Amino acid sequence: MSAWRVQGLSLPGYSHMRSGLPCQDAHRHAILEKVKADGPVVVLAVADGAGSRSRSAEGAEMVVSLAVAAVEEALSEYVPADGEAWKELLCSSFQAVLTRFHDHATQLADGHGADDFATTLTVAVLSGEWLGIASLGDGFVVVRTEEPDGPAAAFHLVTQPPVVGEYSNQTVFVTSAGALESLYVCCIQDACVTGLMLSTDGLAQPALRWADGVPRRPNTSFAKGVLDFAEKSDADPRALAQLLLSDDVVRRNADDKTLLLAVRG
Length: 265
Prior knowledge:
Elements: E1 4-11, H1 14-19, E2 25-31, E3 41-48, H2 56-77, H3 83-108, E4 121-127, E5 130-136, E6 140-145, E7 154-157, E8 184-189, E9 193-199, H4 204-207, E10 208-211, E11 214-218, H5 220-230, H6 237-244, H7 247-250, E12 257-264
Antiparallel strand pairs: 1-12, 2-3, 3-4, 4-5, 5-8, 6-7, 6-9, 9-12, 10-11
Pfam families: PP2C_2
Organism: Sphaerimonospora thailandensis
Domain PPM-type phosphatase: 13-233
């Protein structure tokens, strides 16, 4: 298996820039050199802090760090060999993240609770032919598959985010009661996966195709464009930032925007 190249950025949306608010999105990734697996292992995480909570930017930064650390810790013990084992690892890692997040946030809040740090969280793990995804909230994942000497690349919407809204009461956060009951977990075994795009809901309109108010499939031109960009060894990160701040993207959603891209190098 070839190595993975990862590139990501989080940018404040127009509504936050206009209000003088910081970006409440965050992303983090790690390439796990010490994990003994069939090929490189990559962990990716994106988070979207609740726009209505006072310390959600801190929450987003904290939860992506905890997520990457929890998955790395679990994989240092064993690397799953089948789908059910991957699901168990992702669920137990997510449980550890929620517990540690609550403890840290409560401590930072001087015992007043963790609600002010509310955030979503989407995690993906790439290991050999396996792709594992665990998501809480309205983040989404698009996968690119390519068969050797086969047809053109195909793009797949793996998660199904709910209707987008920065302050939507439909969103589940890591601080929500019974959060684990809403956890989405998916495991895929496919050697043809060559690209991955994780994002927060600020890009759901331009990155996805909608029907009847529901995201149905990826916007192929958007996904192809950003993943092709990530494959360029001399790509200027400023060009990706310019895309996310372009009029066509901003007019569709004024929320913060995060892209975390992984491509086979």
